[in-house]
Amino acid sequence: MNGDWRETLVRLLVAVALAAAVGYEREARGKAAGVRTHILIALGAAGFTLASLYGFGGADVSRVASGVVAGVGFIGAGVIFRGGHGEGVAGLTTAASIWVTAGVGMCAACGLYLLALALSAVSVLVLELPKVRD
Predict the structure, then answer these.
(1) Cα separation of 19 and 89, whole Å?
(2) What whole-number distance in Å separates Cα of residue 40 and Cα of residue 98?
(3) What is the DSSP string of 10-78?
(4) What angle do CA 32, 37, 38 make, to 5 degrees?
(5) Tens digits of per-residue pLDDT, 70-85?
(6) Could you tell me the pTM of the whole model?
(7) How confident is the model at residue 130 (pLDDT cuts 50, 70, 90)?
(8) pLDDT, average across residues 12-35
(9) b/e string for 111-123 if b means 16 or more Cβ within 10 A?
(10) For a 10 Å CB count at each end of the chain, is N or C smaller?
(11) Distances (CA, A) of 48 to 16, 62, 66, 68
């Protein structure tokens, strides 16, 4: 591996810690995807990103990022469901938090710690906003 293993470990741990913050908010609200799910999403995104950075000898890493974005979209779609009897659609916010958490993992894996922190912090703030009803 071309990168220093300590730096790689730090990048993974940053992804885990920041994803845990977003996941904690979802879990505290009793949502289907909580701390473990968000950590695993960020960890997987970080792992794929690190593999693309160091494992493919200069290959186009943006292709892996594109794959992560699309793949996580499918996972997020799994938490979206339609309620019965006109209840509407549920799970969109959790799906969005999963998608953003993948971005957190990718940013942490690239060493973009401030961006990863900002994504997590703003996500938690947005998730904490009171829900506005029509």
Answers:
(1) 25
(2) 10
(3) HHHHHHHHHHHHHHHHHHHTT-SS-HHHHHHHHHHHHHHHHHHHHSSTT--HHHHHHHHHHHHHHHHHT
(4) 110
(5) 888 888 777 777 555 5
(6) 0.88
(7) confident
(8) 94
(9) bbeeebbebbeeb
(10) C
(11) 14, 11, 11, 8
